[in-house]
Amino acid sequence: MGNLSKILDVLNFKTLYFNFKYLPFRLAVRLPILISRHCRVRKAGGSVEILAPVHFGMIRFGMDDVGIFDNRRSRSIWQVEGKLVFEGRAFIGHGCKISVAKGGELRLGDNLKITAESTIAATNKIHIGANCLLSWNILIMDTDWHSILDENENIINPALPVHIDDHVWIGCKVTILKGVFIASGCIVAAGTIVSKSVVDPNCIIGKNPNEILKRDIQWRE
User: Fold this and answer.
1) CA angle 135, 137, 138 (to 5 degrees)
2) CA–CA dist 12, 63 (Å, integer)
3) For the whole model, what pTM was predicted?
4) Which of 64, 106, 150, 208 has the fewest beta carbons under 10 Å from its own?
């Protein structure tokens, strides 16, 4: 039953639907995108692009298992009306939520790994680089969701792009807010709220508000 359950989780209607909806037929037949049958599809619009050689199962959404979560009750959510670009392989664990608003863009680098229960919400633009590792219960968003107006009714809190460079490790329960840039090779400590950019590479980022805790570090998966 275990093997059968895994097969059913991979080869289901949602997997077939996503591939043939979003990709040209010559690519869709290779089934590069695997969608968990437990995934809730709230919006399946916009566009999906894969900017890499296509092969079976190179993108997995809502799958894999983390021992501290119940993957049968932890449902992933797909809510896409904008543009979603995969620059290569992506492994997005169970319970993760992807939201791309109309006019927004989410770009995910090659060999992205997200453990579980994390949320990415793009209304402007979010770019996560190659070889990034994201833990659980992370929130990344490029908007405040509600407008704040000055005395002349001008919006003073517009959505701003988020850019996470290559080979960044983001710990559990991190929040990354709009307008932030995180340089390559950095580690973001668990529980950090990243509200300002870090332009120096190979740093450990922590505390609230965030600051650099240590420089010239390296990390390996």
Assistant:
1) 70
2) 13
3) 0.92
4) 150
